[in-house]
Amino acid sequence: MRRLPLAVALVAVALAWLADPRPALACPACFGDAEGPMIDAARLGTFLLLGVTLAIQGAFVAFFLYLRKQARKAQDQALDAEWSSLQRTHDRAWRNV
Question: What is the rounded distance in angstroms from the CA atom of residue 12 to the CA atom of residue 8?
Answer without folding.
Answer: 6
